[in-house]
Amino acid sequence: MPEDTNNVLDEFRRTTFEAEGERRDVYEAGSGPAVIVIAEVPGITPEVAGFARRLVDAGFTAVMPRLFGEPGRGLAMGYAAGVMARNCVAREFATFALDRTSPVTAWLRALARDAHARCGGPGVGVVGMCFTGGFALGMMVDENVVAPVLSQPSLPFPIGAKRKAAVGICGADLEQVKARAAQGTCILGLRFTNDMAVPAERFETLRRELGDAFIAVEIDSSPGNVYGIPRRAHSVLTNDLVDEAGHPTRAALDQVLAFLRDRLQVAAPDVR
Questions:
Q1: Model's pTM, two decimal places?
Q2: What is the pLDDT of residue 4?
């Protein structure tokens, strides 16, 4: 189905944005301060678009750049594997490199600056997911980014002890992130405890480097956990979200929305 007729994205305005010599499609909806939603593999699925709609309902402008995949297409194993394979060899993504910021982050920073100028507010929020989770950290180098959320950040792929502990940005960028954290910018991180793609060592690095500025949400997915969360659980805000009051994934989603509202100074919606 052609992406511009896919009803998953009917309510989103499709535009393009060019920076760093690259022009990409961007899907946007809502009003209020901007939150950049950087989709997980395989791309802007119905679940990712659903998360973006929650942001719209919460009073934000949801901005979804297309970095890969077919916007609106559902998750299927063969399709996701193909997208992942292409991403692994793409120069814009640092999938295995230690201490390197993915080059695409420069384009994303430019998008954040543009969104801030258009949508106003004290700055921009960013939610990275899985393959793109750590991009939110790299974007924090730009002072426009005041509310970074790292949802299951899986790069670099955790092969070997050093990569398990790596956070996917170069040393110079990390120093700038640490300086901003020391000045009061907080970072929210989400992971399932049994997720091999996002090892505990990675969050330990973030705690050590960022101190109290790093807020970790780690959801128990160990065998026999109280909520029956499967050991393979990975996508906190999308595919593995259980949208029921009291469930830890719903609590994590609510915490993300509260974090963004606080940092972007958006009042909670009136539910009366």
A1: 0.94
A2: 42
